[in-house]
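The instructor's notes for this session suggest beginning with a concrete chain rather than abstract definitions. Hand out the sequence below and ask the class to guess, before any prediction is shown, which regions might be ordered.
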Amino acid sequence: MPRTIAVSGASGKTGYRIAEELLRAGDQPRLLLRPSSVVPEALQSCEQRRLNLADADALDGALAGCDALVIATGARPSVDLTGPMRVDAWGVRHQVESCQRLGIRRVLLVSSLCAGRWRHPLNLFGLILVWKRVGEQALERSGLDWTVIRPGGLSEREEGLEQEGIRYSGADQQESNAIPRRLVARCCVEALSTPASIGRIIEVTSSAELEPISLEAALASVQG
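After discussion, reveal the predicted structure:
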């Protein structure tokens, strides 16, 4: 039976790809969107819920009946340096708390390589990596069946991905290198069906020099 999986941040560059990959896998994505978000044409037929994630009642209503949640929200570059705190920390916490209230056990968070590190150039943008770690911790302490995916630098490239392998590692073991957003999306969808990913932070980058490998096989050899 198809699962109903909520995707928050579903109009974002990674979020919409996650929704597309869920559709390809036979699942039913429910798009959680800001009121002003524009949805790609390929996702127009998906169920959409437009809301402010800080509105607990609206969030509970949007998530009701879902089997899982993928959190793909992320602060956008802005002169407002409180964005990362509001989106990557408190926004994630709001979604986690809603899942706790509704009994939604399975939650996957898309975070970032180097989350929690203070000395990093990205922290010039409102301490974004620090706040991402706060969001991760809210999920880790929730008691839910959680997975955190930490991708490296994100690219829009869509070509040659079938021959490109993903480098998987545990927390705080990779510092650089990139990965196409499409491969991140596929990794997220695969993780939702991989019990071994529960309770783990998984860092991902990719390279054409690596052989493609399943997430389950990779996790059998990944430490941490």
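Then share the key points. The mean pLDDT is 94. Residues 78 and 125 are 8 Å apart (CA to CA).
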